[in-house]
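Mods, move this if it's the wrong board.
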Amino acid sequence: MAMGTEAATIRGSKPASAAGSKRGRLWKKLWSDRYMYLLALPGMAFILLFEYGPMYGIVLAFQDYNPFAGIFHSDWVGFAHFERLFKHPDFWMVLRNTLVISLLNLLLFFPTPIVLALLLNEVRAGLFQKAVQTIIYLPHFVSWVVICSLTITLLNSEGIVTQIVHALGFTKVQLLLDTRFFWGMITLQSIWKEAGWGTIIFLAALAGINPELYEAARVDGANRWHQMKAITVPALMNTVVVLLLLRIGHIMSLSFDQLFIMGNPMVSSVSEVFDTYVFKAGVLQGNFSFAAAVGLFKSLVGLVLILGSNYIAKKTSDNYLF
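Not the wrong board. Structure tokens:
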């Protein structure tokens, strides 16, 4: 009996010692990379405070929130706000506008930084390359208020662009009031403002390509076009897929500043998206619970999209998020 008890004790101590050894290796790893984690600490603190911290506010979506009663004493209404959202006559219009603008950005805006990065990577004159990079980066630092104001000034009925188009013999069109041009105008604005800034990640990925690959390709007689197809583009695919998946996850979120300023009553049927709808129907009217319900709906759709697209990427290629 004593031997059996001793053997059982030894067997029971093995998992504990293994767990202790694993914890020891973990702490040793953390300590060896302490400076890396110290550099990441501000970003981690920002995410915890401003991304995860406010998540308790999700409960507002299931309450009839009263600012005087507070979150803990407001009445619970279950899914009433979601039912109101889905039955609202403007829901399908807002959903259509959000998806169309997001898909236009996905099809036209997303590839633009990739093309710009490939073109800049082929420029051999260093001074010219840096000058072009600086010029295309600059619009990123201009606020949407300034960009939208310039657009309105140039495209209004007395704007210079409208005057030039009319002087060329075309019919004078109110570009800012015509629903046919709104989606294209918004997409072009986004490309002009952010495409240059988006090249940074792709240029960093291109900088990590081993130069010996290009040397070997040149020895084999490959020209610049063949080198781009066989070396540069495949090296970018992992970065492209990751950023594409992240973009798909944010397909329900658009630039509120841009769409709120560019929108007007004449084009509201094509300019109203979830971001502006939440502000107008929720915040301005004091319906904070309804605004929280719309925000939660957007987040859930984004989660489903990113999980689904990542699953497809995992099954069809070697490039995926997780």
